[in-house]
Amino acid sequence: MKKQYENNIKKGGIAEEIALLKQRREARKAKEEQKKNPQSNPQSYKESDAVFSKMMTKKKEAISKNKPLKHIDSEDSKIFVVVRKRPIFQKELNNGEIDCISVVNPRVYIHECKIQIDGITKYLEDHEFYFDNTFGEDDQTEDVYKYTIAPMISLTLNQGIVTCFAYGQTGSGKTYTMKGIETLAIDALYDQNSKMGDKFDFYISFFEIYGGRLYDLLNNKNKLQVLDDKKGNVHIYGLINQLAETPDMMHRIIDAANAIRTTHNTVTNETSSRSHAICNIVIKLKNSDEEYGKLSLVDLAGSERAQETQSNNRQRRAEGAEINKSLLALKECIRALDEKKNNPNTHVPFRASKLTHVLRDSFVSRSDKSRIIMISCINPSYTSANHSLSTLRYSDRLKEKTKQHFGGNYNNINAGARGINPTNNNNFAPSPKNNRKSDNKINYDKNDKKAIEKKAKVERTQSKEKKPASKKQELPKKPNIQFNKNNNQKKDASNEINDDNDDNKELDDGEEEDWDYLKRTMAKREGKVLNDDYIKYQNLTTKLVEDEDDIINYHMNIIKEDARLLSQEGDLITNIKGVGKEEDFKMDEYIAGLDKIIEQKLKLYDNIRSKVEKYKKHIKEEDVLRQKLNPKFFMDDS
Q1: What pTM was computed for the model?
Q2: pLDDT at res. 37
């Protein structure tokens, strides 16, 4: 090979040799790709399980005889929950997958493939749910839009606040669905505005929540800060709100933002969306700065379960913990909003996560003109049945069903939702609703001393409205090193540097109240006890994010302060050597100045060392808690 290469060089075949090397490299890459994804080979084909396939076909034929109800629109619903099943892809069929989901509006069935305890007998365990609407693989995005967002366009242009979420497992089609809805909604807004005489301006902001931090997707992922004012209103400091004069301009802005959204490779998807993407379209009257209406389109991160993140690094684990925390808080905020129609004093725990905090207006502002739409997307593959089941159970708990939603079929549908098939009771598994407590008492673990001590406080706050934002939330976090903009002199802020070194301090009042609320409501509604270690873990991941930001910001300020001190040191040296000076510079003045500089430097680096040590301590605590919580690492959706 070496001799052949030398001969080619001698003959002037350099270009041919480069082409040959490129060809070999591409062949090598293709071979490696084939090892990673054998199903990508068109010649690769895996037979599906013949027994399960036959049983599934028979089951689907029986269900298809049921007559679907007509889709209803969302106009009269404060909370509207729909499910969309995506088609099964050819590459999945080639890999032996079986479509295990049937949709007959407003029902959706999951036929879970299982094996009896004897290890031989195969059977299907059926799960039935019902929602406001369900859409099958033959329904288009336009159909989903028609019955969800389309009826809300007029409300949005009439001081309404409409928030639409796309939720589901990675690879279930939620991002695809949300992109289609964004396009249709934008065109409808501009079209309606044109019919109304162009009385509105449309502003767009687009940011993501990743790992507990906010990043502006319209400003090179600039880091953002969430602040509450004295009235409790939420403000996102530094967020760009861009005027979009035409629908084409807004489409281009959204496409550019989606292109830089954070994704990572996971077990289930090579480009899993690991951030919550929030697109806010704010409507303002011409020549006015006041918000008139708002449409928020939220593409939630892939809802990975705990066992799929255990083998990943700490950053992925923390990221997964943040996603699960926000999904838990979102569910409880929506349920609290649903309860407000019967009890206006119902508390909404929006401070329990960053996601619900920035969406505060969707839950507590203009309650008479606030609407929530949840589009839950599911993967039809039988190997993803447990994830689809988790998605449907989550969605099923968002609101209580009422008889008027479903007309004369309510009784049969309601029975199915409880896991009871009117024709065959043995085919359905019990729904989680069977585990809910029938009484309104709050059950505390007798061994949970902390919970018992807080019981009185919890019960006092149960019927209260949310508290005003705490002082900690009202003000931006003070930087540890502050500079005067006029003279660039350092303020005396170093004494405050260790004010937050108390590792055992509680959450701020608002967040603590909301976590207490989550713990109570889960025990009451679902018969589940939210593990105190889980709450500690969530608190710890928040601390780690704060620690990281604090260290980086402090280090940057130290660099600036070092530059200032270096200039002072240069002046001292210049003066002591008498360069450019006729008068003598006394040694005692030099020593006093040098001693002051050394003292300032030592204080700066002692403080940053203490921050680094605190961060390392929290890392160890995170690892201990993670191992303690395995395998129930995050909240249990089963």
Answers
A1: 0.72
A2: 54
